[in-house]
Write a structure and sequence with these properties.
The chain is of the alpha/beta class. It has 20 helices and 14 strands. Helices cover 48% and strands 15% of the residues. The chain has a seven-stranded parallel beta sheet, with helices on both faces. It has a seven-stranded parallel beta sheet with strand order 10-11-9-8-12-13-14.
Length: 421
């Protein structure tokens, strides 16, 4: 590589060194940074202990957080089907993703860890200790020093479910980060736009495989968790499931809820703190209860889900779904309800380019973006018309079925590429 690359690499390494000095100071004042650092204190100790008793071949998947892990899971399952002897390690950058996943045993995953800070010494040590046979990064969470450490030892590195935008650093200028992109052995994208962006900078080792989340949501929809109490409660009434509700979402939903007592309303808040749920319940004219305090013999119309792990399967009860977050930090996964073949409503996105599936759902005819109470009521009224509803639900089913098989396609290609080495 040329001198410019190594100069930029040096500046990048210097920046990470300065950051590693500042973070311990910042953790004194910022709890999130304290949590970020404390989780990483035992990375190598845990990794060494694991490899002492598990020295066989291993595949490493790196994900940023929970959403990317959900995209990795179908690929992991397909890889284990193809190579059952391979162990699988998953690393997280985000504490929120790690904290959610580490709570219970994950199918097909043998080791879960944080990713160390992207300093050269830590990256080299991590790669040497883990010693993976092949590596998968997910979406676009790429860490230069870890990738360089992998390529220095000739380990194949793949990027799956990649979704690029023109404003990504790889496409703005021909610099350090673009050259890191060219270290990857192959890229599997979610869409054609990402292929076009890669081709525009001369990267040709890529193909559209699709979004692996479709495989994941179909697997969930095919065998959802059972909730007999909720099934009995819903009965023959139509239900609306609200996923990841924020305050901004509830402001437009509450008038709709109050005007439709003929529906069962299942609301899974983004924040499980009791106070927001109490405030919402006070503004709702219908009788409501938190799931943890629900008297199954009582007659409630609104159920607040105050625990983690139920939402993805709750959409089995829905006639219509509303997915929150668009008005705030980011839209939650709209593919979860679509996997059950139901229409999905969501707020007006601030940065629609970050959520291409939202725009695609509207083109398919199963997704509906609303910006206020009036727009929400108008969409809801249209979905109460049986012909319109049937067409929308059929569109959701077709969209999912036409996008299945991404994980299988990825592993078939990876297997061929590995055989050539």
């Amino acid at each position: 590589m040329n001198g410019y690359f190594w100069r930029m690499n040096w500046f990048y390494r210097l920046g990470l060194f300065v950051l590693s000095v500042l973070l311990p100071v910042a953790e004194i004042f910022i709890p999130k940074i304290r949590h970020f650092l404390q989780g990483r204190k035992s990375i190598f100790q845990n990794l060494i202990e694991f490899r002492k008793t598990n020295s066989g071949p291993i595949a490493w998947f790196h994900v940023a957080s929970l959403g990317e892990y959900e995209q990795a899971r179908p690929v992991i399952a397909e890889l284990k089907k193809s190579r059952p002897e391979l162990m699988v390690a998953v690393s997280f950058f985000s504490p929120s993703g790690y904290d959610n996943v580490i709570k219970k045993t994950q199918p097909n995953v043998d080791f879960i860890t944080y990713l160390p800070l992207d300093r050269k010494s830590l990256a080299v040590r991590f790669v040497e200790t883990l010693n993976p046979e092949l590596v998968f990064f997910v979406k676009y969470d790429l860490w230069p020093q870890h990738i360089l450490a992998l390529k220095a030892t000739g380990i194949p590195v793949f990027l799956v479910s990649a979704s690029f935008r023109p404003d990504h650093i790889y496409f703005r200028s021909d610099g350090f980060f673009r050259k890191i992109l060219f270290q990857l052995d192959y890229i599997f994208t979610q869409n054609q736009q990402s292929i076009q962006l890669l081709n525009s900078i001369g990267f040709e080792k890529a193909e559209v495989a699709g979004d692996t989340r479709f495989d994941r949501v179909m697997a969930t929809a095919s065998s959802p968790k059972e909730f007999p109490d909720i099934k009995k409660w819903v009965g023959n009434k139509p239900a609306v499931v609200v996923g990841s509700a924020w305050e901004e979402d509830m402001q437009i939903l509450i008038p709709l809820i109050n005007s439709h007592p003929d529906y069962c309303w299942i609301i899974a808040p983004h924040d499980l703190s009791p106070q927001p749920m109490k405030d919402w319940a006070d503004s709702i004219s219908l009788e409501s209860s938190r799931y943890s305090k629900w008297n199954r013999e009582s007659t409630v119309d609104v159920l607040f889900i105050d625990n983690i792990g139920m939402l993805s399967s709750l959409f089995q009860f829905a006639r219509v779904a509303y997915v929150g977050g668009a008005f705030g930090k980011g839209l939650h996964n709209i593919l979860e309800p679509v996997g059950f073949g139901i229409p999905v409503i969501f707020g007006k996105l601030r940065k629609s380019e970050k959520f291409p599936e939202a725009a695609q759902s509207q083109r398919e005819g199963c997704g509906f973006e609303v910006e206020n109470v009036e727009a929400l009521k108008a969409v809801f009224e249209r979905l109460e018309q049986e012909d319109f509803y049937k067409k929308s639900a059929e569109s959701a089913q077709f969209w999912v079925k036409s996008n299945l098989g991404a994980a299988e396609k990825i592993i078939e290609k990876v297997t061929k590429l590995m055989l050539r080495k």
